[in-house]
Design a protein that fits this description.
The chain has ten helices and 13 strands. It is of the alpha/beta class. The chain has one domain: 3-Layer(aba) Sandwich (UDP-N-acetylmuramoyl-L-alanine:D-glutamate ligase).
Length: 310
């Protein structure tokens, strides 16, 4: 039977402006000043980045989020539309300002300063059953920033499953470093869990990625653990695979994990095995590392597949 749902991917979560400062020769510190050779403004937020990357890979995608009624909000709506994401479910808030993240990006690491603004306004009510029935898959990112959505997620995920959709989750970094807030109890409701090695260590208490992966796999059937330039490891139904990272000239690592998520989910939704999912995730992450900011446009035209075959 042909699935006639209008969306393959529905992303539920944050959308914000990323102001990215890069090209610094040393790390900033209070009481001092360093110069950045590059400044960029992009659409950002882990959930929105995944949506943009999925859309550029060719998946019909919609984003459920909030922005302010301000110039930053106007910019974000235009950017999402330019990247092929449906903005029909992005609400404009009358009083709160659009969320902004300042990213200090170096070749080997990055740091963020965020003004929440509209970032954490999404709730479970923003994903009604009628909308969930219009998508094959629901993705949520930045769990720890979504203070209003987080208490509703178990119920949202159950409703998504009842509507015939699958579910993926990426926590992002926990600013409070508590690494729980109900996450462990939520994982059995998740079909695909997509943390990085730092997040997995915080959640499980295991610094070794293999042990962290095994611990998470006890609660979630499919887990992919991102290892930065070392690639990724993944597990599905007891099988484990590793894929080395791809060597590229790195300009900015801001969107790499989100691009990995999109590539992984692209293959997973096509019914591919865990090895193919991890390999395409690595290729997408590597490609967006070659340009600053949300470089989702680099994923269009089959470029990730060309990287794997070329």
């Amino acid at each position: 039977m042909t699935d006639t749902r209008p969306y393959t991917m529905l992303a539920l979560g944050e959308l914000n402006v990323d102001l990215i400062l890069s090209g610094m020769t040393e790390r900033p510190k209070f009481g001092g000043e360093v110069l950045a050779s590059e400044l960029g403004m992009h659409a950002g937020g882990s959930t929105a980045n995944v949506a943009a990357c999925c859309a550029q890979l060719g998946l019909p995608t919609a984003l459920v989020s909030n922005v302010g009624s301000d110039p930053f909000g106007d910019f974000l709506i235009r950017e999402m539309e330019r990247l092929g994401v449906s903005t029909a479910y992005i609400l404009r808030h009358r009083t709160l300002r659009t969320g902004v993240t300042v990213s200090l990006s170096m070749l080997d690491d990055r740091a963020f300063v965020t003004h929440l603004g509209t970032i954490d306004l999404v709730t479970g009510a923003d994903a009604p059953d009628g909308l969930l029935r219009q998508t094959r898959h629901l993705h949520v990112g930045s769990l720890f920033l979504q203070s209003r959505l987080r208490p509703d997620l178990a119920e949202v995920f159950r409703r998504a499953h009842d509507a015939g959709a699958t579910v993926s989750l990426d926590t992002g970094y926990d600013p409070a470093e508590s690494w729980d807030t109900g996450l462990i109890d939520l994982l059995p409701e998740v079909d695909v869990f997509l943390p990085n090695e730092t997040e997995a260590a915080g959640i499980t208490g295991f610094q070794d990625p293999g042990r962290a992966l095994a611990s998470l796999a006890e609660r979630c059937r499919v887990v992919a653990l991102k290892l930065g330039p070392q690639g990724a490891i993944g597990t599905a139904d007891g099988g484990v695979c590793e894929a080395a990272g791809l060597e590229v000239a790195v300009a900015d690592t801001t969107c790499c994990g989100d691009a990995f998520n999109a590539g992984f989910l692209y293959e997973w939704l096509a019914g591919k095995g865990i090895e193919d999912c991890v390999r395409l995730g690595n290729a997408c992450g590597a490609l967006v590392a070659t340009a600053p900011g949300n470089s989702a446009h680099l994923l269009s035209g089959g470029r990730p597949f060309e990287m794997l075959t070329g």
